[in-house]
Write a structure and sequence with these properties.
With 257 residues, the chain is α+β, with helices and mostly antiparallel strands. It contains 5 helices and 10 strands; from the N terminus they run ααββαββαββαββββ. It has one domain: Oxidoreductase, molybdopterin-binding domain (Sulfite Oxidase, Chain A, domain 2, Alpha-Beta Complex), CATH 3.90.420.10. The protein is globular, with a radius of gyration of 18 Å. The relative contact order is 0.19.
């Protein structure tokens, strides 16, 4: 996944994940943010743009404001558009910040999903146990911060159901994920409980190929693609802000609708 800047436009956050044409609009909004960080930022805040710590502090404040505004706009009952299976791409695009030669190799026999934090039952789950959970499918659009999108069919267990099964504290603020490639990410609890947020193990009715995140990938169509971690090896529930791989490098944390 290339190191692009996140969108700062709140008034269009409700439309961010609707269509690929709207996704392409992200790049235009990124350009506006770049302008803000240099010229307009001086006029709006009076900060010296040569003082990188001051500029970064202001931008971090803007990002936190965006997170709060997007969270306030989020509707846990509002579903993202779904599509007929005929619209689903069978050869889904590979997407990561490294080449396919570096895809993690995970042994299905020894794999365990680690659990920690505000969870009653922290016993790790084997792949067989995860596959035995009741499965649901969705055909939804994946939208990347780079400006492209694809429709895919994803099958797995709704994260809400899994969190209930393990006795997670559903009043906690965050759910975090750690991955076999060193990636990490987190989402707010309201997004975790959204009915379209899945822990997926299949794409196009086939077990996830390694390039798609085998053996476990988060599918969350209410957020941008980098909030859909692959190769998940651990999950935790916490009230302490967890950040994320790209979020800690300047991406907007909420990044959704």
């Amino acid at each position: 996944m290339s190191k692009a800047e996140p969108s700062e436009s709140i008034d269009r956050s409700r439309e961010l994940l609707q269509t690929s044409s709207k996704a392409r609009g992200i790049e235009r909004r990124l350009f506006l943010r770049q302008g803000l960080s240099l010229g307009a930022l001086t006029l709006l805040t009076g900060c010296d743009v040569t003082d990188t710590s001051a500029v970064q502090g202001v931008l971090n404040g803007i990002s936190r404001w965006n997170d709060g505004a997007q969270a306030a706009l989020f509707n846990s009952r509002r579903l993202m558009p779904t599509y007929p299976e005929s619209k689903a791409v069978t050869d889904f695009r590979y997407n990561a910040y490294f080449g396919e030669d570096l895809i993690p190799k995970i042994d299905p026999v020894t794999y365990k999903l680690g659990l920690s934090g505000l969870i009653d039952s922290r016993t790790p789950w084997s792949l067989r146990e995860l596959y035995a959970l009741p499965q649901e499918s969705q055909v939804t659009r994946h939208v990347c911060v780079e400006g492209w999108s694809m429709i895919g069919k994803w099958t797995g267990v709704p994260l809400r159901i899994f969190l209930q099964r393990i006795g997670a504290d559903l009043t906690a603020r965050y759910v975090g994920f750690e991955c076999a490639d060193g990636y990490y990410s987190s989402i707010d609890m309201a997004s975790a409980l959204h009915p379209q947020t899945f822990l997926t193990c299949k794409i196009s009715d086939e077990i996830l190929a390694p390039r798609y995140g085998y053996p476990l990938k988060l599918r969350i169509p209410t957020k941008l693609g980098f909030k859909n971690p692959k190769w998940i090896t651990a999950m935790y529930v916490t009230n302490r802000f967890p950040g994320g791989f790209w979020e800690d490098r300047g991406y907007n944390w909420f990044s959704g609708v």
